[in-house]
Amino acid sequence: MSRALFVGRFQPLHKGHEYALNYILEREEELIIAVGSTQDNYTFENPLTAGERIEIIWAYLKSRNLTDRVIVCAVPDINNNYVWPRHVKSLVPHFDVVYSGNELVLMLFEAANIPVHKIVEKNRDEYQGTAIRQKILRGEPWEHCVPPIVANILKKLKFEERIKRLAKIKK
Ligand code: NAD
Q1: From CA 42, how far away is CA 53, in angstroms rounded?
Q2: Does ligand 1 lie within 6 Å of residue 111's CB atom?
Q3: Residue 170, pLDDT score
Q4: Could you state, in chain order, the average pLDDT of each consecutive group of 10 residues for the chain (171 residues)?
Q5: 10 within 8 A of 35, measured Cβ to Cβ
């Protein structure tokens, strides 16, 4: 059995993440989604709490009948990049390979002698947390950048209002 690890901040879960999840699940039997930077929330860059991000990911996985193949874990950051892969290993179940499009994540796991598989990111201009948050600020449509179930939950969380208020207190 092969199990992959996929780390992300999911601020919010968008169609680029969806593309990556599909890509991984076509190649691996099981997947660990590690929600990173779980200590951060209610900032412009990291508006959602870890709990909200996990709720969104779980609702999305349920809607796709994927909860028997995916484990969701929380991983706070540490102030030591070299040590970080071992920190991650201490917090999540066993995995065989790390999938990522994030160069730093790939570099750090490679340096720790853990197999990595690079994902080529898709439509990064739109499918990117920063781009979505900027669209909200400009009053542009953004819902098409996230799966419909995610858009519904974000609406309930008043995500747009949160982004606009956080932008005003951005340093
Ligand atoms: P992210 O949500 O931006 O991206 C998560 C994953 O999705 C990445 O692999 C990315 O390549 C992929 N992705 C994003 N957009 C995509 C697209 N359009 N098409 C296909 N794939 C796409 O999260 P991130 O910032 O990459 O998450 C890395 C996490 O690891 C962060 O929480 C970071 O803090 C953490 N980290 C921590 C340390 C430390 O604590 N020292 C070190 C390195 C990384």
Answers
A1: 12
A2: no
A3: 60
A4: 96 98 98 98 97 98 98 98 98 98 98 98 96 97 98 98 92 60
A5: yes
Among 118, 13, 110, smallest CA distance to 60 is for 13
- In terms of residue numbers, what domain contains 76? 3-170
Q: Which residues pair with 33 in a beta bridge?
A: 6, 72
Q: Among 17, 90, 127, 144, name the best residue to mutate to test ligand 1's pocket (greatest count of ligand atoms within 8 A of Cβ).
A: 17
Q: Is the CB of 119 under 6 A from ligand 1?
A: yes
Say how many domains are in the chain: 1
Please give the pLDDT value at position 171: 60
What pTM did the predictor assign? 0.97
The domain that holds 79 is classified in CATH as: 3.40.50.620
Residue nearest (by alpha carbon) to ligand 1 atom 16: 16
